[in-house]
């Protein structure tokens, strides 16, 4: 897809434009939501349930109210409006009413003059619980969030058949900035909330009914967000802070500590999956059967959409004529699960890629060759019957990956480069090298008929005699560089160097969620469309001349992508997705088979992004998504035992550091999607899919073990008989 580019600037689309927040973040001067401060504000704290499942028999707030410095204590009886909220179903209570369904469920709120006072007061509240049996095994649950079959074809016999059972643990988004915000009561009886979130308008739409206020009296402004990755799609402390502020008629700030953050947001769904692949002797897929079980935890959140993604993408980017895939999400008394980068596709990808490696072995083919023989391309059908109608050069990507040079063939001699080497645990006696591959396909934007759009307001005017453009959207900048991109688009379309991106808030129309790799597509499309409308009013004149003649010009536009449709509830057929993106990874690992330690030596990736809008930001997205995939492969898991979280800290919940991430080799392809603005293809999520199975495959290659669960732990690897 080719378009005329209207720019004379060096910071437009296609350039590595400098981020306006870069210097502030590097120097520590950037204001995050936890830095918010207002004279006269008080501090809010949440009392949470210690039980995963229990009846609440009584709540005595008297001891808390008697502590000096405490202003108020609120329970569910003090919720001024509707008592339930939720992203897809309003099933989650603002504060627990007569029961708790997971450890960490909010029960009461305290406001005090100091956070320590508020915490002491919360601890003083006396709650009488009657614990009951918790349902923590999703296989025992009788309560479905969603059950989605995908059925196609009728041939389920083949020359070569491989089966496997796989598990994916509960991963945390592990953002660095904990949940935080400041609620300020307004003179009109409403409230202004300054908040770190991913979706300002859906927050407002859930808040207003619970607060008993009309939407126009609940105003949200985005504050600095220290990472998100899906966990800020759901409400955390938003309603609680607003309730306290309206009750006290003074500003209230709530900031979670790290432990509370683990209880205060959703996680990635754990999954149990059983797969069966059938193929011809030369490795051509005949059928795929799969049962995917996702643990949604105590409340719905976005589980229905996660189930839909797992089902529709459950066989991967491969040509397969016969399919019996079923994805099911269930309620349990484990912590609620919802959105996390990859959103249902990650779990399925680990299983189907593990199966492709088994199939390659059974057919006597290389991991690359088995994938090339079955790779989708433009014109192929997904298992839902949807036609891939834009470039999908998977076979080419795999050949490009195969051609990339490998690192030195032997494990490193430098101890620091060996597994556990910085701790001097080995001299390399039991270190073995392995190579593995992974392929992932991810839907871009929201799916299944969701009215997915974004709004942009663009104003051009003379400031100090020079053209200046202001771009205003409600799109949340969560670290991905969207503010930079909006300015790049305005410079490109209007040929004006001086561009300001206004703070995101609810005084402009919705931009939807910063998730599903959608903001460059949808908000980028809205900014582009609004700029085009402004440019039309220039009447062919240069910006400066037009603005001098006509005065300020302002236009607001909405942008929608092409329609999508729900999956058929019985057959799973339907054009459910807007756009599809592919990424392939190769991983090289060194494994100490005595100690069970893994060092990822190198990661290589090939990704088709349609068109590169900002090269540096794009590389950061691919590297960041790969790092999260590495974490899921080797270390990251929220440990749950009988519904209780055992490791709610960054001491015990491990995430990759700079010592864990290896050098990356990347090749980025540009095959434009004709339906997308500039031909772009969302890029943030696909690397998270394919990196995990590539690393797991490399560890299998090094150890010879089947390794059917991620994260892979030292005890899964250590070959204790090697001491003999």
From TrEMBL:
<feature type="domain" description="Aldehyde oxidase/xanthine dehydrogenase a/b hammerhead">
    <location>
        <begin position="27"/>
        <end position="133"/>
    </location>
</feature>
<dbReference type="GO" id="GO:0016491">
    <property type="term" value="F:oxidoreductase activity"/>
</dbReference>
<dbReference type="InterPro" id="IPR000674">
    <property type="entry name" value="Ald_Oxase/Xan_DH_a/b"/>
</dbReference>
<dbReference type="InterPro" id="IPR037165">
    <property type="entry name" value="AldOxase/xan_DH_Mopterin-bd_sf"/>
</dbReference>
<dbReference type="InterPro" id="IPR046867">
    <property type="entry name" value="AldOxase/xan_DH_MoCoBD2"/>
</dbReference>
<dbReference type="Pfam" id="PF02738">
    <property type="entry name" value="MoCoBD_1"/>
</dbReference>
<protein>
    <submittedName>
        <fullName>CO or xanthine dehydrogenase, Mo-binding subunit</fullName>
    </submittedName>
</protein>
<dbReference type="Pfam" id="PF20256">
    <property type="entry name" value="MoCoBD_2"/>
</dbReference>
<dbReference type="GO" id="GO:0005506">
    <property type="term" value="F:iron ion binding"/>
</dbReference>
<dbReference type="Pfam" id="PF01315">
    <property type="entry name" value="Ald_Xan_dh_C"/>
</dbReference>
<dbReference type="InterPro" id="IPR008274">
    <property type="entry name" value="AldOxase/xan_DH_MoCoBD1"/>
</dbReference>
<dbReference type="InterPro" id="IPR036856">
    <property type="entry name" value="Ald_Oxase/Xan_DH_a/b_sf"/>
</dbReference>
<dbReference type="InterPro" id="IPR016208">
    <property type="entry name" value="Ald_Oxase/xanthine_DH-like"/>
</dbReference>
